[in-house]
Amino acid sequence: MPPGIKATTGNLPHELTSFVGRRREIGEVRRLLSVSRLVTLTGVGGVGKTRLALRVAAESSRAFDDGVWSVGLGELNDPGAVVDEVLSALRLSEGRSAAPESVLVEYLSPRKLLLVLDNCEHLIEPVADLAVTLLRACPELRILATSREPLGIGGEAIHRVPPLTMPDPDQVSLAGGGLGRYEAVNLFAERATMAVPDFDITENNKDVIAAICRRLDGLPLAIELAAVRLRAMSVEQILQRLTDRYALLTTGSRGAPARQQTLQWCIDWSHELCSQAERELWARLTVFSGGFELDAIEGICADAMTSSQVVDVVASLIDKSILIRDEVAGAVRYRLLETLRDYGMQRLQETSEFASLLRRHRDWYEHLVLRAESDWISSRQVAWVARLDAEQPNIRAALQFCLTGPSEANAGGRMASALYPYWRARGRLREGMRWLAQLLAVGGEPGPEQVKALYVLSVLSGLYGDPEASALYVERGGDLAAQLGDRTAEALMADAAGHHTLFTRDAGAACEHFESSLAVFRADRNHLYMIWSLFGLALASGAAGNWSRSDECQQEILELTGTRGEYVYRGWASWTTGMRARQRGEYSRAKALATQGLQLARSVDDRISAAGCIEVLSWIAVDEGVPRRAAELMGAAEALAQRVGSPSIIYPNLHLEHARIEQEARRAIGDRVFETAFRHGLEARFEDAAAYAVDEKSGSDISVEPGPTSLTRREQQVAELVAEGLTNRAIAGKLVISQRTAQGHVEHILSKLGFTSRAQIAAWIIEQRHSEQA
């Protein structure tokens, strides 16, 4: 990418339907964001707070060097998990020992970033507390929140989102733009055209359409639900139904705000238009959190319906705009708008099947994660990772159900333990620890489920940097396994003891524990457990100086995973085997293994393993006499480590070799060139850095993530002209901009680069030119 061109960054979702109107609101919210670091959009459900926030964020993205990031809190029910959800959205790991809030503050404090916190109303206190902490510690952070009520903290700017603009009864005209001036009418027309392609506003129907929009108080959700009815009704019939229903609802609920009456009535009306089977399924679908797939509907909600009947009813609910269909990575998923989910939940709670549906939901997702674990060492692992990613809200809801009493806790322990491979690959150590600790505290019948839960909790605690907790869980699990007399349970706790002693640097004891557990798992032909012990034994043997045993273990992992098409552990083994090959001077083999490991890590988005592979490839670049490439790759590996956690979690002595190789590269090209190349790698997008590491892209093709030293294209042009000695007035004339704009660009450049003079900008430009020629 040419110098100065910045790629946008963030995680804003793509809009699936057109965005209608709201120009005044967009301008006002952007103005508020320019003067206040916290802006909260409030309003009734269905008024369009989320769509407005995401559109403002998208249109403001150029103002935030480190991107715009959306955190959806609507499906989050645990107040204690707000920080974890923000960490996950920013693609950060929880850290080994630092408090999660500290990890967030450390990451955000130097960055210029917009954080969108969406659907905060049920988590007001924890969101408000987090906002105060972040805003005080992170001077360049802005927060845009959506909530049905303000967060109630100092410095908060509140924008109440109004309904869409509507025509007055005496202003229904097609002349001079006519109805096209009104957002509600435009929204109805656009959605009506989606339902009936040849629909148009005419002199004959304009009065009716205007009346429909007024009856719906300009609420976007209500308008969209009404427009889709054109598939079965005329606009006159829709207005007639609206009129009758509105009168009935007003009479029945005079105390409710008018907009809530209208929205409630509109959903009630949509419910009435559904068949009995559709109504029943709508209610049952509210047992899901977030999205869900067809197999989950069939397994939990079908009741006496056949598979074909379920498909027909689901399709009908999609046609009626009750269900939304999404397609992600080839998988079709469905979801309910939150307002429609709340409505359906009320209906479900009126029935006798609510409690049984919650248990069926838990049972189905328990079965799902157990299947994922049993099928983990296979070519289907990539699909399982994607499915578990998508199902996190449902899995968390199922685990939450297991906290309701001791009779449910064992099922929760089975679920949480089965998620261990996923949590570890995703770097979600703290989340796993929290669930397991809560489930064990609830109680349950002592058995193998609790032993495995203690095993996972011990290993996660050690990886997280808490050896005391790791030791405690090893002791508890070992005692319980001995009481049960279960050889697999005893082998698991031997493996846990091996990890604990490895973390505490007792390599000899760790080897003994891993050899013991491996013998049992090998006899049981449990490939997943075998790999756990083999990997631990490989690390422990290497730390003890027994490299031949370490190599044997790594090779066995590669054979076990390679023949079964597995990705995560094969990626880890390729990375660490590549390190060993390089130590022996087998540079070609080392590069092939590290490249293979990186490709595998990319397939499952395992960024800890990817960071390790990129690190090894940077060492090989020094061996091959390309120190500038090495510096760029070291920067890319460091960027990943900052986001998802250091690969030294898996390979503890990584930093020692890194320090030696870095010094060698610096001696070869000098500190200035090294730092410039390192910074280029540090700011690179992960996808581009990985492609560069495996020779799919050249260094000049790497797109950088906007960072504190990244200039926009215009700023780079201004900096070049400053280096040529031009004044602000001369720059303005050269670029055909105002002198005041030119001055603003220079001030932004000085601020971003941390400089105080134009001479420093000129020197920086000259340094850039020299480094590009190196």
UniProtKB/TrEMBL annotation:
Descriptive protein name: Predicted ATPase
SMART domains cross-referenced by the UniProt entry: HTH_LUXR
InterPro entries with a match to the protein in the record: HTH_77, NB-ARC, P-loop_NTPase, Sig_transdc_resp-reg_C-effctor, TPR-like_helical_dom_sf, Tscrpt_reg_LuxR_C, WH-like_DNA-bd_sf
Family matches, as PANTHER family: HTH-TYPE TRANSCRIPTIONAL REGULATOR RV0890C-RELATED, REGULATOR-RELATED
Classification via Pfam families: GerE, HTH_77, NB-ARC
Residue ranges constituting the HTH luxR-type domain according to the UniProt record: 704-769
GO molecular function, one term: ADP binding
Any single biological process term in GO: regulation of DNA-templated transcription
Tree of life domain: Bacteria
